[in-house]
Amino acid sequence: MAPGRGPRRSNITELVPRRARRPMALNLMLMGPPGAGKGTQARRLARGFRVPHIATGDILREAVEMNSPLGRAAAAIMDAGQLVGDEIVIGIVRDRLQRPDAATGFVLDGFPRTVPQAEALDAMLDRRNPLVVIDIAVEDAEIIRRLSKRRVCAACGTIVGAAEETPPSECPDCGGALVQRRDDQESVVRERLSVYRQRTAPLIDYYRNRPTFRSVDGSLTEDEVAAAVADAAHGGSAVRRTA
Ligand SMILES: [Zn+2]
């Protein structure tokens, strides 16, 4: 596979400053197709590393709910199953990474999605720790099967159901009504996957030869993927967190 695979693990350890007061602080980016569980895994990692979870999809959805000009523009694009343009997204991420809580690390979820976005991110991270890229690999058929069962709570935003045989009828957190997101409908999912494979998959080529690139099998259970992702984020060298 990728050249440079052998030295990956030792390299990543060397790249993390040993003097760091919080040696777990890392710049992490999760990639993978929609429905691969990036959001769930990113939240778990962010908690574990005590760094912000920066989900560009959430930031955009908030803008849509607030009906801001950005939100209206983004809503029209997302409703068509398309991706919001590089310029808007790069601006959002640049602002977010400059906030103090991101100084010791972050978990990026949903960015970058294109090679121009990745190049912009590299420029932003010029003087920071290297970016650890974790690809959560899942096949299209499995994604479609999962997303057809996924539901979101209209009250609190909790996402449930992808791993269940039949989706639950009410939110396990607050009892609110569960609905299917428009972009989880099969026709939209197929369009999203097509867009993903076409435009985002080249990112794997962009990152794959770096010593800090990892790919994990996203077809396993959430806990198994979490263990693999945490291990990848640690470079396989640190204490594995319990799930
Ligand atoms: Zn809820």
Features:
single chain, 243 residues, alpha/beta, Rossmann fold, five-stranded parallel sheet, three-stranded antiparallel sheet, 10 helices, 8 strands, 43% helix, globular, disordered N terminus, disordered C terminus, binds zinc ion
What does this protein look like?
The protein is of the alpha/beta class. Helices cover 43% and strands 13% of the residues. The chain has a domain at 25-138 and 217-233: Rossmann fold, CATH 3.40.50. The chain has helices at 8-15, 38-49, 56-66, 69-79, 86-97, 115-124, 140-147, 186-200, 202-207, 222-233; strands at 27-31, 53-55, 106-109, 131-137, 151-153, 159-160, 178-179, 213-217. Strands 2-3-1-4-8 form a 5-stranded parallel beta sheet, sandwiched between helices. Strand 5 and strand 6 form a beta hairpin. It starts with 7 loop residues before the first helix and ends in a 10-residue tail after the last helix. The structure holds zinc ion. Zinc ion is lined by residues 153, 155-156, 158, 171, 173-174, 176.
SSE blueprint:
Blueprint: H1 8-15, E1 27-31, H2 38-49, E2 53-55, H3 56-66, H4 69-79, H5 86-97, E3 106-109, H6 115-124, E4 131-137, H7 140-147, E5 151-153, E6 159-160, E7 178-179, H8 186-200, H9 202-207, E8 213-217, H10 222-233
Helix pairs in contact: 2-10, 3-4, 5-6, 7-8
Bound molecules: zinc ion.
| CATH hierarchy, class of the domain at 25-138 and 217-233 | Alpha Beta
What's the total number of strands? 8
Proportion of residues in extended strands: 5-15%
Structural class: alpha/beta
What is the CATH architecture descriptor of the domain at 25-138 and 217-233? 3-Layer(aba) Sandwich
CATH topology of the domain at 25-138 and 217-233: Rossmann fold
Q: What is the helix fraction of residues, given as a range?
A: 40-55%
Q: Distance between the terminal alpha carbons, to the nearest Å?
A: 30 Å
The rounded Rg comes to 18 Å
Order of strands in the sheet with most strands: 2-3-1-4-8
Largest beta-sheet details: 5 strands, parallel
Mean pLDDT: 82
Multimeric status of the protein: single chain
Count the DSSP helices: 10
Query: Which term fits the overall shape?
Result: globular
Helix/strand order, N-terminal first: HEHEHHHEHEHEEEHHEH
Bound compounds, please? zinc ion
Determine the CATH superfamily of the domain at 25-138 and 217-233: P-loop containing nucleotide triphosphate hydrolases
Low-confidence stretches: 1-10, 16-24, 236-243
